[in-house]
Every structure is written in C-alpha cells, then in structure tokens.
Amino acid sequence: MNKPMVGVVAGAVLGIVDGATAWFTPAVRSQIMTILMGSCVKGMVVGIICGLIARKVHSTAVGLLAGSIFGLLFAYLVALMPQPDGSHYYLQIMLPGFVLGALIGFLTQRMGAAPRAA
Amino acid sequence: MSYLPDRALDHLRDVAEAPDFSATRYRVEEEIGRGGMGTVYRAWDTQLERRVALKVLNAADRVNQEAILLAQLEHPGIAPIYDAGTLPDGRAYCAMRLIQGRRLDEFLRDEPALPARLRLFQKICEAVAFAHNRGVIHCDLKPQNIMVGEFGEVFVVDWGVARTEDSAPALSAGTPPYMAPEQSGAGAQTVDTRADIFALGQILRELMPDPPPRPLAAIARKASAADPRDRFSSAQQLAADVGRFLDGLPVSSYRDTMPERLARFCRQNQVLLLLLGAYLAVKLSLYFLAPALK
Q1: CB neighbours (10 Å) of residue A63?
Q2: Is B274 on the interface with A (CB under 8 A)?
Q3: What value, to the nearest 5°, has the Cα angle with vertex A84 and ends A79 and A90?
Q4: Within 13 Å, how many C-alpha atoms sit on residue B268's CB side?
Q5: Which residues contact B170 (CB under 8 A, 6 or more apart)?
Q6: Angle in degrees, CA B254, B258, B262, rounded to 5
Q7: Contacts of A56 (CB under 8 A, 6+ apart)
Q8: pLDDT of B234 strictly over 60
Q9: Lowest mean pLDDT: which of A58-62, B11-15, B29-33, B213-217?
Q10: Which one has a higher pLDDT value, B253 or B188?
Q11: Angstrom distances, CA of residue B207 to CA of B105, B142, B188
Q12: Of the given ranges (A32-36, B167-171, B196-200), which has the lowest mean pLDDT?
C-alpha cells in the first residue's frame, strides 16, 4: 500500500472513530450520520495530503507537523459551519482534529511503501 | 667455569631464530607477535614500498596451507595475503596486509558502548560467515585473533590452524575457552563450521556487560551450546539475532515474558501511544468540561 493510500485509510478510520464519539454529546446525537460522513471525509483529505507529503519527505517530525496543521485547518473549516441553533463547536472539533491530524501524519510516515528512486 | 646469563642466552636464541630475508624483497623491522605456531614481523616491502606483516612458521606445509586458504578469502574483514615463499633455512613465510589497529581484547578495555561492541561483533560474524561459505573453518577464533582498525573496521587474522570442511581432521587446535568441545580429542573428527559459532558465542560473552541483557545472554548461550546441534547453524543467523537485539526486536533464542513484550511494544511505539493518549485526554476533557464550555 502506498503512502497516500495509507493516509486515506487511516484518515477514514480515525475520522469515523472521531465522528462516532459525537454520540456521547446528546445535543448533536440526532446528526450523527452527517457528523460521521463529514469527519470521515475530513480525515481522508488530511490523510491524502499527509500521504503525498510523506512520499516526498521522510521525517516523523514533518509528518507530525503537517498532519497537525492540516488537521487543525480542516477542523476549523468544519467548525465554521454553524449548528441549527447558530452556535459553533470550535474547541470540540478543532482540538481533536489537531491531534488526529498529527496521528494521521505520523502513520503516513511510518507505514506504506515509499516510491522507488528513479 | 662461567655460565652465560639468561638475557645473553635469550639474545643468542633470538639471533639464531631470526629469519633471513636477505634474498627476498622484504626488510624486517621488528617482531610484532609470537605464538605457538610461529612469529609475525613488521617488514618493509622494498618493491612496492609499503609495510607488510610477515608471518614465519616452522612448519612449511602449514604456512603454505594457510596461504592457499587465505588467498581464497577476499573479504573486507579478512586480512589479504600478498605473497608467500620459503626462506633459505627452509621455513615458510607469507606476507599479509599490516593491520593498523588493536586487538579486540585491547579495544574492549576502552569500554565502548554495548551497541558499538555488538556492531563490531556483527562484522566479525560476517567475515566468519564469508569464510564458512567458502568452506573454510577458522578453528581458533578468539579476541586475540581479531583486529579492530582505526576506523572501526574488523579483521579476522591468524588462519594458521584453519581447515577446509572437506580436509582431513587436524590435531586438536584452538584456544580454551573459545575451543568447542568437539575440537578436543577424538571429537576433532566431527568439527565443522559450528565450532567457530561456539567461539563466536564465547567472544560475545566477553562483549556483554555484567549483568548482561537476558536476550543477549540467551544468544551467547545458544551460540556456545555444548552440543553443536543446539547452536546457530550459521554465523549469519547469529549476526541476525544480534541485529534484532540491537533493533529492539525479539530474538530467536529468547522467549520474552509478557511484561517484556509490553515494555518493548511501548518503547517501539512511544509517539503513537503518546498521540493516542493525547487524543483520549482531549476527548475526556471535552466530555467532562462540556457543561462549562456551553
């Protein structure tokens, strides 16, 4: 499995797991499917970006940094979308998104086959 | 009647034993080693203008056999042979690369770190494995026969009692405690490459700290098992197991206990566990602080 594919798979799985934790928040439980989908897609996008970076740069530190930056960025974009009552869950979405991004970045550095040098 | 003092007798003996290299291209500079089989000198090769190690043995056929064996072993970890011949007094000699370095036992006195010691050991195994692949058994591996160069390169030297696997069994040769049980007495008939594995196991013991890490002690124990069938079947396997230990992986000779496995997993996955822990901490904090965040 190549690194972008590792990123997509890791992002999807971790995104679903992260989205599923919304079930513990009664206020958003009714929107669980939308949250699961959004979280999954967000994870996959961060994963593919981290995977592409991991193909070029072999460094755990870079993977962690890129993952956390893109995780935070996409979590921010998701958090920008208001709830039905007009409120935003910035902290509740961005903080886990930041850590999950770092995790995805780390996994893309450690797993998956790097392209062969020409 | 007066007696000659011991020093004078020793001097006379040395002069009588000094090899005559006048008919060769070598000029002896000084004696650098002496053993039961012969003497090694540092010499100057007047033709190629370089320093060499000259080995002179009393048994002509022995040195010739060593020269022929060494000529087949072209490996970075084995000192190459340059030339071989016979002196006017009938003694045979061979010229080899002069290794600038220290013997392994001397090198270990500086107490280099365990990983550095084990990487040296792997290089020794590689050289021995190469010889084994060529069908040659060293039969006298010991720290005194291993030289460590200035840049950490390793040379296995003194192949004086080496033999090929298909050659007639030699008289028991080797040095206790590096000598495998089957090398002594009638057992010499069955000596094969595993005799060198035994010696490598004994050398590994000397490289280990006290108390040794359990997996490493198990590797040494397996390598120097009394029964050759219980040893590693090749020097590559031994080196690979040491490599796994160096990489923090499980070794074939030692079954980890559950706490050890857990500790190894945590050591190898520190960042991953840290990130998962951070994620869990964030989620739990947000869950319990949810009322306050509203």
Answers
A1: 27
A2: no
A3: 20
A4: 14
A5: B139, B161, B163, B188
A6: 105
A7: none
A8: yes
A9: B11-15
A10: B253
A11: 9, 12, 28
A12: B167-171
User: Which residues, 6+ apart, have CB-to-CB distance to B232 below 8 Å?
Assistant: B194, B197, B222, B223, B238, B241
User: How many Å lie between the alpha carbon of B282 and the closest alpha carbon of chain A?
Assistant: 6
pTM of the model: 0.72
Q: Is the pLDDT of residue B189 over 90?
A: no
SS3 state at A2:
strand
SS3 A26: helix
- Mutate which of B276, B285, B286, B294 to disrupt the A interface (most A C-beta within 10 Å)? B286
How far apart, in whole angstroms, are the C-alpha atoms of residue B119 and residue B125? 10
Q: What percent of chain B has pLDDT over 70?
A: 89
Mean pLDDT for the stretch of residues B195-199: 94
And the tokens for B117?
């010691």
Helix or strand (DSSP H, E) at A104: helix A90-110
B279 and A100 in contact by Cβ < 8 A? yes
Q: A71: which 2 tokens?
A: 């995780």
Q: Tokens in use for B180?
A: 């495998």
Dihedral sign computed on CA atoms, order B266, B272, B278, B282: negative
What's the token pair of residue A31? 């929107």
The pLDDT of residue B169 is: 56
What type of residue is B33?
G
Hey, of A29, A50, A103, A104, which one would you mutate to test binding to chain B, going by the most B CBs within 10 A of its CB? Answer: A103
Please give the ipTM for the structure prediction.
0.91
